[in-house]
């Protein structure tokens, strides 16, 4: 009996030892698994924290940092930034069609003649892609008054002219031209060129509504904030190859127009608005637009553009004259 008891006791001890070893083995295995899981989780946490921190930092930077303005892009792109942007329904209904083509020009001189301060000079028109000629063709297929504007207003991209002492009027101005390509019904179709403020009525020609100026082809009249009366300004225009220009002097608010290279005189003065180049028609016609990407018919405007002065030589000459005037 005693022997039997000892055997039972010994068996229990062996069972306890085996159970203890088994538990130790399981604990070690589980600990290893848990450790691996913890290390893996810690790595994920570190990566996640780094990504979150980076995302938050970018958000904070974006909130503190001002977004790049239109001024930044205009200075970077120059006159290439300007485009006429018709209403989407005009495009979908084919009332207005715009073709922007870049034509590679070989062996074309980048110096053009400019009449500056009474003297004829050769000036260099600055263009990042001087061998690329940008042709902007606009076709109107309208049965009533239709107006389109540029995406940007007249804007001076040269910091040198943003000064407390403004250059005299004759030294710089904004300018653009249109060339008539086709106008089959010249006696009935009106083509208009001018300036208007943003969100101008798309169903009125420039000059026929408030805060706008226009030069109309039918009778050579100019219009400013009025209906269809206008003021006699020049002769009728609108024939194929007619070149009409619009200029604006920001220092005096003067607006003038040109016809086939001739300045027609000051049309209006003291008009200080944030002007957008604006054109329109009430019939079927097509025309080219020159914002300054190539030489103008009006020689005095060579080196100018919708972006102010784009000729570095002309810009330097303006600064020299300003410095001389300051000393006097």
Structural features, described:
Keywords: Membrane, Transmembrane, Transmembrane helix. InterPro entries: B30.2/SPRY (IPR001870), B30.2/SPRY_sf (IPR043136), ConA-like_dom_sf (IPR013320), Gid1/RanBPM/SPLA_SPRY (IPR044736), SPRY_dom (IPR003877), Ubq-SigPath_Reg (IPR050618). It comes from Rhizophagus irregularis. Helix content is 28%, strand content 29%. With 328 residues, it is of the alpha+beta class. The protein has two domains: 1-65; 80-327, Jelly Rolls (Sandwich). The strands form three sheets. A seven-stranded antiparallel sheet has the order 1-4-15-6-11-12-13, with no helix packed on it. Strands 5-14-7-8-9-10 form a six-stranded antiparallel sheet, with no helix packed on it. Mean pLDDT is 77; it is low at 57-66, 104-131 and 160-166.
């Amino acid at each position: 009996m005693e022997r039997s008891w000892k055997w039972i006791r010994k068996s229990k001890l062996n069972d306890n030892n085996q159970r203890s070893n088994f538990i130790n083995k399981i604990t070690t295995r589980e600990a290893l698994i848990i450790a691996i899981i913890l290390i893996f989780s810690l790595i994920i946490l570190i990566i996640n924290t780094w990504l979150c921190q980076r995302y938050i930092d970018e958000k904070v930077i974006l909130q503190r940092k001002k977004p790049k303005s239109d001024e930044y892009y205009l200075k970077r792109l120059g006159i290439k930034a300007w485009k006429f942007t018709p209403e989407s329904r005009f495009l979908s209904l084919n009332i207005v069609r715009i073709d922007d083509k870049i034509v590679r020009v070989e062996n074309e001189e980048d110096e053009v003649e400019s009449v500056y301060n009474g003297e004829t000079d050769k000036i260099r028109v600055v263009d990042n892609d001087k061998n690329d000629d940008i042709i902007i063709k606009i076709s109107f297929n309208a049965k009533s008054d239709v107006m389109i504007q540029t995406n940007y207003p007249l804007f001076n991209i040269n910091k040198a002219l943003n000064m407390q002492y403004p250059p005299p009027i004759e030294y710089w101005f904004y300018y653009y031209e249109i060339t008539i390509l086709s106008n089959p019904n010249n006696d009935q179709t009106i083509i208009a060129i001018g300036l208007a403020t943003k969100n101008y009525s798309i169903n009125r020609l420039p000059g026929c509504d408030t805060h706008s100026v226009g030069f109309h082809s039918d009778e050579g009249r100019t219009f400013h904030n009025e209906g269809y009366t206008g003021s006699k300004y020049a002769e009728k225009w609108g024939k194929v190859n007619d070149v009409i220009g619009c200029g604006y002097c920001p220092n005096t608010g003067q607006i003038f127009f040109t016809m086939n290279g001739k300045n027609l005189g000051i049309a209006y003065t003291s008009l200080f608005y944030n002007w957008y180049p604006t054109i329109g028609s009430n019939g079927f016609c097509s025309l080219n637009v020159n914002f300054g990407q190539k030489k103008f018919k009006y020689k005095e405007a060579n080196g100018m553009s919708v972006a102010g002065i784009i000729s570095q030589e002309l810009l330097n000459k303006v600064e020299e004259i300003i410095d001389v005037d300051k000393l006097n």
